[in-house]
């Protein structure tokens, strides 16, 4: 069967993955209202074409701090990617390098900072969770030594959201498989061969001799972050990290303005894909309110079509992050699957620009 869009890849991932794995990828918090609203908000936006313009040649490239990206897409930081494909983080990084777009590696990755840096020649960003200050400093120093170009501080996880699909599936680490889960795994032989036979993927960034706190891994697995991290700590992080710094998870323009005043280079408007506060607004809904922020604005959560990306750019975004969409491709086809999904989005962006009467994101010809 031909996979024609991101939803097709989602359905194929559902078919190929055991239920507990797919639910971890696809699910959100509580009633998953935010997950649904992230999509509904995009679907409610309309684009009005301006026609009789010469759109015979289109260019979807954008500027990012003096560098030209071929498309305004960044592969978002996502955890436990080794559940979908062995060495999933490396495959994502390699796919991004082939596409010429950035890849953000999560603190909760299954391949380490150093492994990903050694395996990819692309533009690598590192996403930071703060469980405790000393460990966070170690991660920052490692990312700097490995030549990661951007640090992305995620701030919307003072504690973990209530992810009820995971609770029903007894999705905890270390894994304790119940008979029902074992039967499900055995019904997915491709996943079992590629992932399951290697055992549960480890939190590679925590499996180093430099980490001395035995509670750190448990904190990351249960999303028990340092809830005392505040603006003063952000300023200290800004002083420690000499390269581009983004803050991810903001939904109020005043927070973005304060972050920028402390030296943050860009902000990511995000509700964590609907996986934290279920009552949070859809990022695309609040994006226009960030127009006065004097820094690039990235938006994520709910992007499934190239037209969604055109809508985000039209409302003031400088770029977007895609998470689940890329992971559906990873689960379905590995590195090639990620490249194919992003390629589909690029084709849809191009078609949408043409039908809108635009040659680029910055012009209406």
TrEMBL record:
It holds the Pfam family FMN_dh. InterPro entries: Aldolase_TIM, Alpha-hydoxy_acid_DH_FMN, FMN-dep_DH, FMN_HAD, FMN_hydac_DH_AS. The keyword Flavoprotein applies. Residues 1-365 form the FMN hydroxy acid dehydrogenase domain. Its cofactor is FMN. Keywords: Flavoprotein, FMN, Oxidoreductase. Belongs to the FMN-dependent alpha-hydroxy acid dehydrogenase family. This is Alpha-hydroxy-acid oxidizing protein.
